[in-house]
Amino acid sequence: MYLLIETNGSKLWRLNYRVLGRYRTYAMGRYPEVTLQKVRDKKLEARRLIAEGIDPSEKKKMSARSSKMASDNKFRSLAEEYIRTLENKGYVPQTIDKNR
């Protein structure tokens, strides 16, 4: 675990590890937004995952994708907005049901 200081002045917490024979780097956040205690907790969790043979970086990516998919269901929100528009314009319930 180390603090990477880039040329532009940003400070980033990193953890180097090896899983399935490959060396990887796990990003744990920016300093000072992520405190040393939080980084230590993240390191322990990452070490536990590595011991189980799970790549912490891949797990982080997968959880980000799933949360984005859950919150970003654009088609559903657009369809619901369209149905509300039909209701506000005074369309008969049969037309609204067909469109739904």
TrEMBL record:
Record's family?
Belongs to the 'phage' integrase family.
Domain Integrase DNA-binding per the UniProt entry, residue ranges: 1-61
Pfam families tied to this protein: Arm-DNA-bind_3
Record-level GO BP terms: DNA integration
Tell me the keywords, alphabetical order: DNA integration
Q: Where is the signal peptide?
A: none
Q: Does the entry feature the keyword DNA damage, yes or no?
A: no
Q: What is this protein called?
A: DUF4102 domain-containing protein
